[in-house]
Amino acid sequence: MTLSSAATSAREMLVRLHDVMAARTTAQAKLNSVVKIIGAATNSEVCSIYLLRDGVLELFATQGLDQAAVHVTKMALGEGLVGTIAQHVEMLNLDEAASHPDFAYKPETGEEKFHSFAGVPIIRRERAVGVLCVQHIEPHRYADVEVEALQTVAMVLSELIANADLIDATGAATTRPQSTAAMRIPGLKLVEGMARGVAVFHQPRITIEHTVAEDVEAERHRVYGAFDKMREQIERMAAQAEFGSGGEHDEVLETYKMFAYDEGWARRINEAIDSGLTAEAAIERVQQRTRMRMRQIDDPLLAERMHDLEDLSNRLLRIVSGQMGTAAQLGLRADSILIARNLGPAELLEYDRRRLKGVLLEEGSLTAHVTIVARAMGVPVLGRVKDVRRLIGEGDLLLLDVTDGSVFARPTPLIEESFEGKLLLSQKRRASFAALKDAPPTTLDGTRMTLMVNAGLRDDVAALDLTGADGIGLFRTEFQFLVSATLPQRERQQRLYRDVLEAAGDRPVIFRTVDIGGDKALPYLKDDAGDEENPAMGWRAIRLALERDGLMKAQARALIEAAAGRTLNVMFPMVSEPWEFDEAQALFETQRAWIASRQRKLPTLIRYGAMLEVPALAEMLDVLLPRLDFLSIGTNDLTQFLFAADRANPKLAERYDWLSPAILRFLARVVGPTRAAGVDLAVCGEMGGRTLEAMALIGLGIERLSITPAAVGPVKAMIRSLDRGQLMTDMAVMLARPPRDMRAALASWASDNNVELS
After folding, report:
1. How far apart are alpha carbons 122 and 127 in whole angstroms?
2. What's the gap between Cα 14 and its chain centre?
3. How far apart are CA 321 and CA 318, in angstroms?
4. CA 62, CA 34: separation in Å to the nearest integer?
5. Strands (E), 593-731
6. CA atoms of 375 and 385, how far apart (whole Å)
7. Which of 441, 440, 470 lies closest to 569 in space, CA to CA?
8. Is the pLDDT of residue 138 over 80?
9. Average pLDDT, the chain
10. What is the pLDDT of residue 177?
């Protein structure tokens, strides 16, 4: 069969199938007619349709096999050739079916005399909902163009099956994943928490209403128009000044441009239109082929490129269908768990926080922008969830438990009951913590600790009243930069800082100067450092700010003017040597002098501090401490630098323990001289937000913690059950001769001393 004759054959089949399905007959009669049409068109003695019903593939109609097998022959996913096709969403083309290792003989079908076999999945919304197969008595492989025609017909068949309601509600495979059973899907813990909601895709799937074209040329022109519009969008993105030059975004755009102008891709879509498909169906048909190839790719670089083509195909499909909005723009209608390959922080902030209960990412890392913002929003996030679009269907009920590192899709009543019990316990604990809002974080032996919160958004300040926290120990000023399409002007920065100070009242706010660059690259800020192999240790934070002093001068003026008549606390990130602190402080003092020369009101006091994240700074504390008003330890970066372990690498993200004696001994070496110098010392990393880790920090002599709002209650409860003096004495012994498992030893100490841990 030639390519043109295959297209003609497919088109003729589509027209005849459309007529059959439009007829006013029973669903079974329609399927009986369908298998006859396909069998005759492919010159096959056998044509059969299996549909997924109650999680099992059931023979619904056949021409050539024993009719007594209809609705009797059933196969599980992965069982036999049919089950293999459905499970892997791949086609099979065999000259001798029985020689395949997955072949399973079903005697009731009478298929032993047939040798050739070709089968393709019937796909609906990226999931196999059935299998269409043909068989021939003579051993021979079907021609590629014949299989191609079969795949085209199967695509249309999926729409016709769904529209004709050929499966009952309990087996509604047309809107379900390959498995309709409950499924636990693991992932990487990014932002801990629990949530219940329905699955919503950030880029909603396009529902193709019509697959059979009435006017092939009209469909071709629609595709041409969509290609032109898509290429204009890509060119506009590439030309925008804020993207700068160099870096990964350039590579992504170049790949997009390569695919957007790929004649082979456009030709394949045109061929699908020739076979009788609408523009939308033709794009989806080529996408199905791409997905099948993606499942067979082991090369991660090539797989990434195929993902890029998938993204671009979705863009083309949205353009041609006129459905361009994200789920945020369309609006969430119920409590939802958002699903995306990846997200930018601005995209996350577009969602209604009352409805957004959690996020699942196919990618994502602990240091990604969206993770940082989600943590500030209190939205649980599970990352590195493989095959999430294949395993979860739009509207599926999801139970997200990031603490457990997993999400349950389509849970059974028993799983729901267990989850609800755990969630209820969590809510009761939160209620008990809320009751401690006005209680001071004082230890049993009378030491008043200071508990502050980390923030980065204007709305985060409300957490002070909700938790009873003592202030904001870390305000991440870079959030405003991360969620903005352009560099925030000084006036915008000043408004934000003033609003935060006014909302905080007499409670202190420590503003960390902007920590951008490296792994927090901004598209509108040209990166002279180019591609960095280790961005977390690269051109970022204080390094970038001192080189781009115009950026820091604008922020300094904004902070000083916003804090007029108040105390301003300024903290510089990632200080490696004292001279960096000196230069940053001098820059601020120059701006203060300039503002004073204009007779403008100044802060009553400016207190300067540094973040200890780079281990080298610990060796220079004797030089730096006399110049500091306060010092904050950033345990997130400090840990990865001490262990040479990139936290963005999922293999290393949870490998190194914050309660390692190496970490605790290092911190103890910092605590001693800092307290002796009379400099306020705080920990403002994630470590302080976990009750056992926070207990260990207190045992080292640390009295100030800045943590997420959600952690304030549990940490306060722990503090109020703790004898600090006894802990410090016993921890000194542990650190002198560390136990084999420090975490277990500390947990045992807490249990023996009735310390309340969450």
Report:
1. 8
2. 39
3. 5
4. 9
5. 605-612, 630-633, 680-683, 704-707
6. 18
7. 470
8. yes
9. 83
10. 47
Q: Is the dihedral of CA 232, 233, 237, 241 positive or negative?
A: positive
The DSSP bridge pattern shows strands 336-340 and 194-201 to be parallel
User: Nearest to residue 715, comparing CAs of 743, 681, 672, 686?
Assistant: 686
Cα 156 from Cα 154, distance rounded (Å): 5
Please count the other Cβ atoms lying within 10 Å of the Cβ belonging to residue 427.
11
What is the residue-wise DSSP string for 367-395?
A: TSHHHHHHHHHT--EEE--TTHHHH--TT
Indicate the helix (H) or strand (E) that contains 93. strand 92-94
For residue 187, the SS3 value is coil
CB 205 within 8 A of CB 127: no
Residue 746 contacts residue 696 (beta carbons within 8 Å): yes
* Of 57, 50, 45, 58, residue with least CA distance to 110: 45
Rg value, the chain, Cα: 31
* pLDDT band at residue 238 under the 50/70/90 scheme: low
Identify each DSSP E strand in 165-320 by its residue range.
183-186, 188-191, 194-201
The predicted-structure confidence for 509-557, as pLDDT tens digits, reads as follows 999 998 875 555 555 555 554 555 666 666 677 887 788 788 889 899 9
Residue 493 · residue 558 · CB < 8 Å: yes
Q: What is the DSSP letter of 438?
A: T
pLDDT value at position 577?
A: 92
445 burial type by CB count under 10 A (0-12 exposed, 13-18 middle, 19+ buried) = exposed
Query: What is the distance between the alpha carbons of residues 553 and 490, in angstroms, rounded to a whole number?
Result: 9
Does residue 13 have a pLDDT over 80? no
pLDDT tens per residue, range 567-601? 999 999 989 999 999 999 999 999 999 999 999 99
Residue 737 makes CB contacts below 8 A (sequence gap 6+) with none
Residue 429 in this model has a pLDDT that exceeds 80 = no
- Token digits of residue 77: 């996913």
CA 463 to each of CA 429, 432, 470: distance values in angstroms, whole numbers, following the listed order:
18, 17, 11
Domains and CATH numbers, the chain: 3-175 (3.30.450.40), 183-204+327-426 (3.50.30.10), 216-321 (1.10.274.10), 450-752 (3.20.20.60)
- The residue among 460 and 605 whose pLDDT is bigger is 605
- Please give the structure tokens belonging to residue 430: 């939160």
Question: In sequence order, which residues have a C-beta less than 8 Å from that of residue 91 and are 6 or more positions away?
Answer: 85, 118, 119, 120, 121, 147, 150, 151, 292
How confident is the model over 86-113, as pLDDT tens digits?
A: 888 888 999 999 899 989 888 888 888 8
Does pTM top 0.85 for this prediction? no
CA distance 369 to 15: 50
Residue among 700, 691, 686 nearest 636 (CA): 686
Mean pLDDT of 325-335: 78
Q: Which of 321, 350, 352, 355 is nearest to 336 (CA)?
A: 355
Burial class of residue 382, CB neighbours in 10 A (0-12, 13-18, 19+): buried
- As a whole number of angstroms, the longest Cα–Cα distance in the chain is 99
- Return the residue matching tokens 């190839």: 293
C-alpha 102: how far from chain center: 35
Summarised one tens digit per residue, pLDDT across range 361-382 is 988 777 666 787 787 778 999 9
- For residue 586, the model assigns a pLDDT of 95
| pLDDT tens profile 696-728 | 999 999 999 999 888 899 999 999 999 999 999
For 476, other C-beta atoms within 10 Å of its C-beta total: 23
What angle do the packed helices 300-321 and 279-294 form, to 10 degrees?
A: 170
Q: Is 456 exposed, middle or buried (0-12, 13-18, 19+ CB in 10 A)?
A: buried
